[in-house]
Specification:
The protein is built from six helices and no strands. It is mainly α. The protein has one domain. The radius of gyration is 19 Å and the shape is elongated. The two termini are about 35 Å apart.
Length: about 160
């Protein structure tokens, strides 16, 4: 199976990211209704432990991280689009990867701030996961920047 290009796995993934952006937008628009259904139908044990005081913090956390995730999807689509057009090693992609790292760091910060408010294993795990992803993405951005630099140096060598 072809990996890179519009007809390959990266092309399929670019389309999947667009679908995720549409679905994510719908979830963000419908978040108040979804939370109402969750609290009404599924959160009896959750409400026993945390009470109704968590509704506003959860809503704020989900909107903040949801919007940041939409940004990550946007930058990912930009990267995949350039890969599929056979122009992967550009400073625009380095910028997109760095922005993904910054958005992941912002999500990490959101979870860090909300740990004392919504103390649960899942919030702590999300914090740890996004912290690790942030570090990996920042390292990848610098590696990508070096690759772009080497590519440009190589183009000037005859």
């Amino acid at each position: 199976m072809k990996i890179l290009g519009k007809g390959g796995l990266s092309g399929l993934f670019e389309q999947a990211v667009v679908v995720l952006m549409v679905l994510g937008s719908l979830v963000l628009i419908g978040l108040p209704m979804l939370l109402t259904v969750f609290y009404r139908d599924y959160a009896a044990s959750f409400l026993e432990v945390y009470g109704n005081k968590t509704r506003l913090p959860i809503t704020i956390l989900l909107y903040l991280t949801g919007l940041l995730a939409m940004g990550i999807l946007w930058f990912s689509r930009n990267i995949l689009h350039s890969i599929n057009n056979e122009k992967p090693f550009t400073y625009a992609n380095v910028k997109n990867i760095r922005l993904i790292g910054a958005f992941c760091a912002a999500i990490t910060l959101c979870y860090a701030v909300f740990i004392p408010i919504l103390f649960s294993v899942s919030v702590i795990l999300m914090f740890m996961a996004f912290f690790m992803v942030t570090v990996v993405v920042i390292i990848c951005a610098e590696l990508f920047a070096q690759a772009v630099h080497f590519k440009e140096e190589n183009e000037f060598t005859v």
